[in-house]
Structure formats: C-alpha cells, structure tokens
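QA checklist item 7 of 12: single-chain prediction sanity check.
[x] sequence parsed
[x] length recorded as 236
[x] structure emitted
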Amino acid sequence: MIQVKVKVYRFNPEKGDKKPHYDEFTVEADPTEKVLDLLHKIKWEQDGTLAFRRSCAHGICGSCAMKINGQNRLACETNLKNLKDPTRVTIEPLQSLPVIKDLVVDMSDFFKKYEIVKPYLIAKTPPPSAERYQSVEDRQLIDESTKCILCGACSTSCPSNWKNPNFLGPAALLKAFRYSFDSRDEGAAERLDIVDQNDGVWRCHTIFNCVEACPKEINITWHISELKKRLVSRDY
C-alpha cells in the first residue's frame, strides 16, 4: 500500500463559490488501483460533497472522463502504477466545458454538436425482407470509428475547440465519418454538407491531441482527413 496525495479541483456555485480552488487529500491505496478508486475513497470516507460522474467503471460508458495529471483520461482506466509518480495525483474537470460542480462539466454543447452531424443511419430505400447486408470489407472501414464512447476527451483536448467554441470538434466529426462511410447509409451527401463549413471539418488543423487523448486509441485525425478527401473529391 502507498500513501497518495490527491489534489482535486473544487468549485461549488451552490455554496457561492466565485472561483475554483483545490483541496488535497491523503488516500491509502494499492498501486494497482485506479484513479476512480481514489475518488470513491475520498467521497465515501473523507468528503461526501465531492462531485464527479461515473457509471460502468469499465471504460464503456465514458462518464468518468476527466483531466488527470494534465491529460484527459478515463478515471476508471487510469492505473496508479502507470503514472509517472503514483503518490501524487492531480484531478481536474475536462477543459473548455462549463463546470457545474467540482469535476462535473456541462456536456450540453458537446452533445448538441454531436446531434448536428445526424449520427444515425439514413436509409431512404425501403428496408429489405432480412438485414441490410454489409460486406466484411465495408465493415472494416468503419470499425474503428464505431468504438467511440462519447466521453468528450478528444474534443476537450483540441486547441481548435478551445479557440473556437463553434467548431464541431473531433467527436462529432468522427461520428460524421462513421455514418457517411457506412455502405448502408444514404445520407452522406447531406451530412457532408454539414461538415463542409468554416466551423466544420476545415477547422481541424491535424494537431493530433485528439488521438493522444482518446481512451479507445482511435486515430481520429485519420478519419477527419478521410472526410476532407471525400469533400474535395466529390462533384459540385
């Protein structure tokens, strides 16, 4: 067991907080435990007012995305022993989103941008009697993009997003790829019109922060580049 100094971002407007501050807690933990385990120990044993999101605790729901030692990560997947110094951990909310309380951010704008790109299958022809067939090769093209869990780690790590809050962001653009390149989809044209805007795909400057931040190791920049290629090659 080790003694871990945990520095946590705190902000509670209900108490009249005008500015955020940091509280420090000492937590006894096993080096194999996750950062989410530290947060649970703090909330359950030291300060019940600490607010953070979590659900599945298995890297599937994306709820516990936060900034850990300066990097966007999932708290449930971040193992203490893999940190540079497992005895000192700083935990902050995702950058560029309004803070509701402590580590809880307002995801409304993130999901609004997600909805703009029409993240669903658009099929204009009548459904077949069985399934909408898709070849193995066609599925492989979109396979990686389907692994997105909408945690927001990519979009909140993007400097283009920090500078321009109207930028659709990596997560929304990845979803635009996922459906526009789906062989069963018939709405690519209208979806591409949506991302072919100043605040759309062209605002991406291939900085690769999104790739580094993605907990599912999706090469988001490559997918956005494929959208750009599709746009410049289509007929107008």
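[x] summary fact logged: The radius of gyration is 20 Å.
[ ] second reviewer sign-off
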